[in-house]
Amino acid sequence: MKKILNILLLSIAVFTYSSCVSEVEDVFDKSASVRVAEAIQNDMNVLTSASNGWVMYMYGDMDYGGWNVLCKFNTDNTVEVATDATEDYFTQTTHFKIEQSAGVVLSFDEYNDAMHFFSDPVSPAGLGTKGEGFGGDLEFRIISVSNDRIVMKGKKTENDIIMVPITPGVAWEDYVNTLHDWDDAMNEFSLYSYNVGGREAEMKVGTHNFNFTYTDDNGVVQKVSAPYIVKEGGVLLYDTLKIFGANVTEFAFNNETFEYTANDGGGVMVPVVPPINEQFVGSYWYTSLNNIGAFGQPYWTWIKNNIMPRLEEDLRLFIFGASVGSWAEAWGGDYFGASFNSGGYAGAIGFDYKLIGENQISLTYNGSGPGNGAWYVANAYFHYLVVPFGANNSGAGVTRTFTITTDDIKKPTWIQLNDNDNPNNVIKLFRGSQGAPLDN
Fold first, then answer.
1. Nearest residue to 420 via CA among 403, 437, 404
2. Per-residue confidence (pLDDT) for residue 367, from 0 to 100
3. Model-wide pTM > 0.90
4. If exposure means fewest CB atoms within 10 Å of the residue's CB, which of 63, 170, 262, 326 is most exposed?
């Protein structure tokens, strides 16, 4: 009886399975390979249909915001590429392909200086850390395609990447130069006050990134970053900015008043010029061996010649000031002092400070060190790197008072700490990254 019952159940199962297969086959009247081939051809047709090419909104590591990449796709699988990320305009034509790989994927599979600017492990612009660079993609999963918008995801980063067609007849070089002009104007000031309905947030300008600090309805201090792409007349945000009940996706920029006005009634950002010592402690600054004065250079040189070879590491970054973005996240929130990356290991060395007037500051090493900071101080003499800032060669804190000078109070590209008690202790620090700080 059991055998008869099993046979009966098996017959029912086979009948049911056959019915399901029949239903599936009714849904798709073409094989999977045919459907994929048609999807690839359709995507190819759309990519090559834009007579003046597409502008891609490229994002990698969000700390460095987004950049425009101009792409003209041709039917012979060549692609002409340019970008506003490089100081000098140029185009380069190489190869691309569209293929099936868990969905349709667009790949830039031949080296292109403009495109690989974003994926090279050592960024030509000094962005990011060695081995990671800007952190961009070269392969993109195509999500949706139309003649006026292509939506993709970076295969490695999962970042949303959008492409829109470039207006026919617009010369690419003019397009990029216009973006450079707007970008330069937007970098006139580094600090803004964002006003929405009478409530204010502080905004510090990063690398194609707005960094907001505000107090929410519960009295809790919040920090929000808003990466953006520069466009003519303003910026387009990567994601919707939600502060004080306003949902903002774009800001228009006035290059005479230097104000940003949000769309959708989101408010206005007005430039602020704080004293230079406040700008110093409110941001982060890069320095290197050749920018350390006669007093501090022997300590840095000793680390270079005696410690780094023993560690078999290279000092990739040395930063001093407030930690923001990924650094602040790594240290668990706000942090002031030195931050470093040695051979891929990140650490920090803590400082206390006191502002004096508008252009002076006292600094004192306090012995703290999140990340790998404490280990490097205890085992690799990394306190030597901060001796000129406010430590002694035994690793104890000493207070040094500095007068701060700069090239531009509105938007400093560098600041200089001049020790009030030691004219040989001069430290120059830069807004831009100083890669390989022991070698330059």
1. 403
2. 83
3. no
4. 170
